[in-house]
Amino acid sequence: MVIQTTESPKEVAASRAVARARIYQLLSQALIYPDDAVVAALVETDLPQAREAMEFLPAGLEAELAAFADQLSAISASDLKNLHGHIFSHVVSADCPPCEAFYTAKEIFQETTELADIAGFFKAFGLTLAENERVDHISVELEFMHVLTYKEAYAQTHHDAAKARFCRDTQRKFVRDHLGRWATHFAHLLDQKAEGDYYSSLAALLGKFVSSEVAFLRVDPEVTLVSQEWRSADSDESGCPIGEACE
Questions:
Q1: 175, 179, 180, 184 alpha-carbon torsion, rounded to 10°
Q2: How far is the C-alpha of 131 from the C-alpha of 80, rounded, in Å?
Q3: Distance CA 134, CA 179 (A)
Q4: Cα distance between residue 96 and residue 77, in whole Å
Q5: Which residues in the chain land under pLDDT 50?
Q6: Where are the alpha helices (DSSP H) in 98-197?
Q7: Domains of the chain (ranges plus CATH)?
Q8: CA–CA dist 173, 213 (Å, integer)
Q9: Helix, strand, or coil (residue 242)
Q10: Contact 152, 17 (CB under 8 A)
């Protein structure tokens, strides 16, 4: 998208970072359990802010965001909770698992290594998670990118280019090594499981945005989807295999 503006290059970069942060925030919140507070925030804050940000984002996202807005306005909070329960159970869904390791890890040791790497990103920025919350959950990874993009915007405005570059470099590494490797495939599976309506529109927005981020950051994630037959059918996959490192 070509932005016609009188802002300086630094101001444009900051505005673009804020815009990206708002989409990451919207997607992150839309993919957690939709309790009343979450739904209210989506309707009253996250969606309006995301729509305001479209000036600084690829034009192709407008249709997906508009479709998601239509679906959000048409569904009740109670119906949304029921729909979420249908698609995502209290353990990791086998049809569209919302966790990275279910797409990339060939065995438990690789999963532990990958989760530890993600946890290292979070700890480097002083972030902690709730007990038993997986560091590789789609909502958590999107929220981390929300933090990074806002920090980039703040650095552009209040600090210096070096700090902004550090935030951008971390974004590149995280999308290349983690989010970009699996999020678009998760979006495809979510669309299949949803069979239309709210979560299908969300899946379309997620897939389009992550693809645009891969292009914007100029990274080439290694997308390798591996068999998960090694996972025991009776194992507890809802928690984090690396324990305290997830906290």
A1: -150
A2: 25
A3: 14
A4: 22
A5: 1-3, 233-234, 237-238, 241-247
A6: 101-104, 108-124, 138-158, 161-174, 180-194
A7: 9-246 (1.10.3480.10)
A8: 12
A9: coil
A10: yes
